[in-house]
Fold:
Amino acid sequence: MIKYIGSKRVLLPVIVEAVRRAAPEGASVLDLFSGTSRVGHALKRAGYRVIANDHNAYAATLARCYVEADAEDVLEDAAKLVREFNGLKGAPGYFTDTFCIRSKYFQPHNGERIDAIREAIAAKGLDPDLEAVMLASLMEAADRVDSTTGLQMAYLKDWAPRSFNDLELRVPDVLPRAVTGKGRALNMDAFDAAASVEVDIAYIDPPYNQHSYVGNYHVWESLIRWDKPEVYGVACKRIDVRDRRSIFNSRPKFADALRGLLHSVRAERIIVSFSDEGYLSREQVEAMLGELWHGEAQVSVIETDFKRYVGAQIGIYNPQGEKVGRVSHVRNREFVYVAFRAAGPASTDAADLARSAMPTPRSALATSPSASGPA
Structure:
């Protein structure tokens, strides 16, 4: 899957185990901010029926590939299309001009292939699930030959070694349908999705700072929408990036927004993933979760120490690819909060969850002082 700030790849064992212990067998799970769909994909593999939602088109497409599409329906055709598209010659167009000439995210020989393959996908008139699989394949192939630190706010001054490689499609890891039923991929505002979908458990991993995901990954948004928009600045961002900021990117509005979202979720078990780089402290999030269900919530927390995203390891760069400033820290703490009604299942005992979910010495778990009892 694509390089992604906030990716929960290293936290997947914790999250999947937390869901397993908080939800009944055969449960439905809503992933409200699905991003790359790593979490939804892992939960589908574990047998859950997953409803994944994201308001960005590229993320909704990844969700359709990894959550909604099922192997038995699409893999045979996807393999044929991958072979066909890998044989296409490059044809320079909007993508090459915008992201290889006007900016330097990709080398032109790969930009030309991206243009040709994206036009071919559009011309096929594919079934929506199969189209999403092919678009995910193209996005991931492009990600493997880009020249960034993992964010598209800027590109490197000098070409990354991987950018010299030739773009090659691969068949994505599409899973068979879960025994609990076909998953769904939604492209909705988080508040609308929370209010309209009823599930057993909701997983919430909201944006946590001032940077919008559509700004961080505007190249993918344009590749998936294929609307060939006007762009601005050295980074060639979509013009609508200026207007598509989430309320969760605002420090003054974040707390009220998250509180409102939590209270609108139609589930009696909620898992929240958050970082100490976010706008709220651990204590604030625990207290907010403790207010749920008229104050009857039990809340437990798994705390884990991790390296920050790859860009923080490399350093801070301006749009010209020049290193500027100094990184303040290279590690951060990730928190997984589990909240449910006090009458919820005893199998979510906090200490037991910690022992089984996180067998690393860096993990620590504490039960919320605001909770009504051990979770």
Summary: Residues 9-367 form one domain. Confidence is low (pLDDT under 50) at residues 310-314, 344-351, 357-375.
